Amino acid sequence: MSTADVYARFAAREARGASPAYERLARAVSRDHALLALLDALPPAKRQPNLLFGVVRLLGGPVDDPAAFHDHVVANWPAIEAQIRGRATQTNEAGRCAVLLPVLASLPQPLALLEVGASAGLCLYPDRYAYRYGDHLLGDGAPVLDCTLTGTSPPDRLPEVVWRAGLDLNPLDVTDADDYAWLDALIWPEHTHRRERLCAAATVAAADPPLLVRGDLATDLPALAAQAPPDATLVVFHTSVLYLVPLPGRAAFVEVVRALPGHWIANEDPRVLPYEALPEPPAGAFHNVLGLDGTPLAWTWGHGQAITWFG
Questions:
Q1: Is 164 exposed, middle or buried (0-12, 13-18, 19+ CB in 10 A)?
Q2: First CA to last CA across the chain, in angstroms?
Q3: pLDDT at residue 285 above 80?
Q4: Number of Cβ atoms within 10 Å of the Cβ of 4
Q5: Would residue 48 be called left, alpha or beta, if left means φ above 0 and alpha means ψ between -120 and 50 degrees?
Q6: Beta strand residue intervals within the chain, DSSP E
Q7: Are 221 and 260 in contact (CB under 8 A)?
Q8: pTM of the entire structure?
Q9: CA gap 98, 199 in Å, rounded
């Protein structure tokens, strides 16, 4: 797929209905030969819209006007390119816990959570947050995660988590100003509620920091998993991570995670982690598939806003 197609697809499938600013920008970039030429000089994994837009926001550039964005990127490309080459998209959206919770609450308790692609580990605290599924409120923590749930009943309990750990090529620390600024820059411009959620979730993580290990999702996973307490149910999970991994790495990870004890929860784009015979997704938004131990269960929105159960 060409870089122009990547940006056009992002505008149509992911930003449409979620971020007018990023939809405009992505459509403009898809037709901007000067910017496409700059992007095409980067490695393919570094050309993605979220990475470019997040870096421009991090450096204080404009993202609300495509013409101003073009001028800023062209004028400041050396600084922008350096940041793009040195960073990766590490969106750490605590709201995704709302789509993981129905599965986590159904497993034998207590749980030992191990997140692959953990970023700063904010999704390792599903037991500390509160949830609102329609008029059903669960928990009394902060932030409160709102999620539209259809096709099944909302969970009636929070999980009991006795161990939490994360694996990432570049773990982030919410108490580090630069790391926090990058997490903030990755939130889409109009999503004020997500910035407030980031602040609340970061407060939880800072008060009780998780074990975050720098390493590869396949080669370093077994050693970290072996540290989990044996009297807890090991749950390895990941959300919107595998698209960053080349195909051979994805296959190696799936082989490794299937061989571990416990359970495996995946919440990924079905083009990245495919399943057989999926039902049609709900209309009007880009959807991931929530799966347990290789079995698909539900369609989910990327930031945890909604889940449509079919499993």
A1: buried
A2: 32
A3: no
A4: 17
A5: beta
A6: 111-116, 130-133, 136-138, 144-150, 161-168, 211-214, 233-239, 263-268, 287-292, 295-301, 306-309
A7: yes
A8: 0.93
A9: 17
- For the segment(s) 94-172+188-309, the CATH number from 3.40.50, 3.10.450, 1.10.287, 1.10.1060 is 3.40.50
Q: Write out the E strands in 31-117.
A: 111-116
The answer for 283, left when phi > 0, alpha when psi is -120 to 50, beta otherwise, is beta
Tokens 């409160």: give the residue: 144
Backbone region of residue 272 per phi and psi (left: phi > 0; alpha: psi in -120 to 50; beta: other values): alpha
Q: Is residue 255 very low, low, confident or very high in pLDDT (cuts 50, 70, 90)?
A: very high
Instruction: Read off the pLDDT band of 277 (50, 70, 90).
Output: confident
Mean pLDDT of 46-65: 97
Nearest to 172 by CA among 224, 214, 225: 214
**Of 157, 151, 154, 152, which Cα lies nearest the Cα of 132?**
154
Q: Which two tokens stand for residue 225?
A: 């998993």
Domain regions of the chain by residue span: 3-86, 94-172+188-309
Pairing of strands 136-138, 130-133: antiparallel
- Cis check for the bond before 126: say yes or no (omega within 30 of 0): no
Q: What is the pLDDT of residues 85-133, one digit of tens each?
A: 999 999 999 999 999 999 999 999 999 999 999 999 999 999 999 999 9
